[in-house]
Amino acid sequence: MACSKSSRFSTREMTDDELLASFDQSLTTLTHLAQTHDDGYHPICLAMATEVHKILAGNGSTAKLRGTRVFLTVDFGEESEMLNAMHKLVGARVTGAVPALDFIPDFQFGQDITNALKFGDWWNTDVIYCASAAIPGDNPGVIPINASPLLPFDKRQTINRRDFVSLLRNKRGAHQDDDMPQLLDELETSRSWGVFECQTPAGVLSTLNDTLLTGASMMAAMMRQIVHEVLLAYGRAAPPALVWEVEQ
Q1: DSSP strand E in 106-202: where?
Q2: 177: left (phi over 0), alpha (psi -120 to 50) or beta
Q3: Is the pLDDT of residue 142 over 80?
Q4: How far apart are CA 241 and CA 116, in angstroms?
């Protein structure tokens, strides 16, 4: 007579605390990557994108846990009257003995993080970048004036966190290829924001002619701000904010 051995499987769902414990390594890794960025190695933003995607979209457990989280960000609405590009997650500053343009995540720039969003709104709906009114093919940082053609607000390119993280992960991170999207190319420089100039004893330095160099890129600063918001949502303290002296 053939005998069969039965197995008993538990159907109990993991609690939030148990899920967080299972995410512990990924959250620890993300914290270390964030600190590496703050220490000055900004290309780490590519690895940060891969880790954020793993935490937020890795499997069914990630979906269950993220639904219980509140995601805090900067309260910054789109304004159709603005002609220049809108960058929700970053600020810009020229610093250094040899002046350089650095882009800084909002939480390090002193912006208050006061807008609480559900995951779906934070990930899929909230616009973190809106292009300028420049016609495609023109310099995106040079705003048309004097009745020059303008791109209607509803036609301007926008991006949310999900698409931004996916672009970094797929095109520059875990699945790197040689075809970098134009948007990432613009966000890696200062072109999408506008022209920055700095008066020095040797003359005027400008991003228009590449005499004013860019240190920390806008793309890296955007990813760092997203990481900060993820760490806040999952109860992990982000590395200390940088303290910027106010110029008199």
Answers
A1: 113-117, 127-130, 158-160, 197-200
A2: beta
A3: no
A4: 20
